Amino acid sequence: MKLSLGPILFFWPRDQVTRFYADMAEQPLDIIYMGETVCSKRREFNLDGWIGLARELQQATRAQIVLSGLTLIEANSEVSSLKRLCDNGDFMVEANDMAAVQFLSERKLQFAGGPALNIYSGHALAEFIDSGLIRWAPPVECSGNMINNTLQQLDAMSIPRPEVEVFAYGHLPLAYSARCFTARAENRPKDECEFCCINYEEGIPLASQEGQPLFTINGIQTMSAEINNLLADYPSLARQGADIARLSPRAKGMTEVIRAWDLVRQGGQPPLAVQGCNGYWHGRPGMVTAEEAGLC
Amino acid sequence: MELVCPAGSLPALKAAVRQGADAIYVGFKDDTNARHFAGLNLTDKQLAEGVDLIRKNNKKIYIAVNTYAQPDGWERWQRAVDQAAAMGVNAMIAADPAVLAYASKNHPDLNLHLSVQGSATNGPALSFYQQRYNIKRAVLPRVLSLAQVKQVAESTTVPIEVFAFGSLCIMAEGRCHLSSYMTGESPNLCGVCSPAKAVRWSNEDGKLSSRLNEVLIDRYEEGEAAGYPTLCKGRFIVNGKKFHALEEPTSLDTMDLIPELDRIGVKAVKIEGRQRSPAYSEQVTRAWREALDSYRHNPGGFRVENSWRQTLAGLSEGSQTTLGAYHRAWQ
Question: Is pLDDT of A236 > 80?
Fold first, then answer.
């Protein structure tokens, strides 16, 4: 099983990002995704800045560097920026919107399909493979069974499987909106957001009136409150067809998270249970912690 | 601009025809339909009767096969496409590349409209669906501002349809898993959001509580109007404050924007609400028909009549309406 580091979904200051990747370069990672996927107004790094950082990192790590594209693309400026990202010439691109799929397939470039693309079956996957997809990160709501069945559907059509990358650790990216919920929480209009999401290195917790943690507000993105953690489900990850486990960056403790995953993939015993949720993997509500975790 | 109206039942379909809808959209009675709600949608026999009525009145019928097919049960989506083609519908509304590919290969004469669930918000995304599947129209998600709708319309030759009135999704359609995170069922996969079977109302300490899969969505003081617990429209705690952290219970109403939508080149306006009553279809279709006719007869002097506004406000969630993302300040 390969380990990948997903793109940073939060908005961190430039120094923090630089330090984070310097640290990540030392870790046993096979793939590192970089770039802004949530909000084009976040510009501690502009596109050239990200590409520059990716080139530096490539010198320091054996991991494959992939540039992730923005997910919700609404303005012409975002379309132009995405086009330049696809034309970077050095790094593979992770498509998170059909605009990226269009640009990359026009250029006959192979690409990774991110979890924000709606690919839910072998027939859909075949369409994307025909457009150049070589790695598939299924939507986060897909269960292990569904992923396996999708791959078997592909087998039945005699289409070679792409690499399969499962969102295995981190706050789940669940929804995208035109509205910025961080600005709303601070009672600011989006056009005068003053980049306030930089003040929340892991977003803002949203709880029910009974105090039950539900979601995490991250600008225009809504994430799970719980950490989705499939480490206890490691044996079933491979069984259901996953080639890569994606670990999504958190502000603190990523080194320990990566170490724990690395130990298990090298043959260590997976834990019987972990904190966090794993419902989606088991075909249940995403927020649920399946009791059978570790035993399946 | 074409007026596209919803029908989740035969009476609603008849009401929309009677009140002057140009096109009526419906779905089959299974999970190929993004309004797969208990007790909703037309049986095959009702559908046949409805199509007959629509044809006699020279209106158009669109059928929505707009969820994402799953590996188990692909035959259901194939059958839905085959049936739509056999019915000779004016267009099929779909989102899933698998469904679009199957339709364009097997039924090249079937007109395809990209569903809002396809989440195409820009020109290049539309080009993908146009080049691969020859789509003849696209419904844009409700996340775009008016200026952005204009940019998209200018950057594509795909005719554009936008949402004009109805429940307001605050998330980009097709890009929201909040419902499955909480209940296990989502719009993309199951055709439902905040499913009714997961709802529980209770009276706790004299306060009405609404729950979704046991999660408290909202709690109402005595006399406070209570709404359906759509999970993004509850009151939650953020930074120590209780408020509608994501969105208030409100409906989208763009009647004021008719002249601008027309100038931008929008080809059709869509009324949301296949899950609503025949009375809803009747009233909202009548108000919008009158408004569009009034605009056509006198574009320069168009103004929204109070009677239309009152009708629409009465049909809205929480009796409130908003211009939504079309108006930048909402964002």
Answer: yes
- A186 occurs within a structural domain: no
- Distance, in Å, from the CA atom of A70 to the CA atom of A38, rounded to the nearest integer, reads 6
Diameter over CA atoms, chain B: 60
Nearest neighbour of B127 by CB, restricted to A102, A191, A212? A102
Confidence (pTM): 0.95
CA distance A182 to chain B (A): 9
Q: What is the pLDDT of residues A135-179, one digit of tens each?
A: 999 999 999 999 999 999 999 999 999 999 999 999 999 999 989
Alpha-carbon distance of B31 to B153, in angstroms, equals 31
Is A177 at the interface with chain B, CB within 8 A? yes
Domain boundaries, chain B: 2-168+250-330, 194-243
Query: Cβ contact (<8 Å) for A285 and B183?
Result: yes
Q: What is the mean pLDDT of chain A?
A: 96
Cβ distance B96 to A178 less than 8 Å, yes or no, reads no
Specify the pLDDT at position B318.
Answer: 65
CA distance B13 to chain A (A): 31
DSSP letters for A128-197 = HHHTTEEEE---TT--HHHHHHHHHHHHHTT-PPPEEEEEEEEEEEEEEESS-HHHHHTT--GGG-TTGG
Q: Rounded to whole angstroms, what are the CA distances from B123 to A68, A103, B160?
A: 20, 11, 11
Counted domains in chain A? 1
A273 phi, psi to nearest 5 deg:
-150, 155
Residue B5 marked as a ligand binder: no
Helix boundaries (H) for chain B: 10-18, 44-56, 74-87, 97-106, 123-133, 146-154, 178-183, 187-190, 258-264, 278-297, 306-314
Report d(CA B328, CA A48) in Å as an integer: 29
What is the chain A residue with the closest CA to B187? A141
* Domain presence at residue A218: no
A179 or B325, which is more confident: A179
Closest among A118, A135, A129, A44 to B69, alpha carbons compared: A118
Cβ(B166)–Cβ(B252) below 8 Å = yes
Test B239 with A184 for CB contact under 8 angstroms: no
What is the phi-psi region of residue B299: left when phi exceeds 0, alpha when psi lies from -120 to 50, beta otherwise?
alpha
Give the nearest partner residue to A177 out of B71, B129, B172, using CB atoms.
Answer: B172
What is the topology classification, in CATH, of domain B2-168+250-330? Answer: TIM Barrel (3.20.20)
Tell which phi-psi region holds residue B96, choosing left (phi > 0), alpha (psi between -120 and 50) or beta: beta
Q: Give domain status of residue A93, yes or no.
A: yes
State whether residue A75 sits within 8 Å of chain B by CB. Answer: yes
Bridge-based pairing state of the strands B207-212 and B199-204: antiparallel
Alpha helix locations (H) across B269-329? 278-297, 306-314
The letter for the amino acid at A62 is R
- Mark which residues 220-249 of A lie under 8 Å from B by CB: 222, 224
Q: Residue A80's domain spans which residues? A: 2-172+226-282
Q: What is the CATH number of the domain that holds A13?
A: 3.20.20.70
**Among B244, B254, B241, B42, residue whose Cα is nearest residue B140:** B254
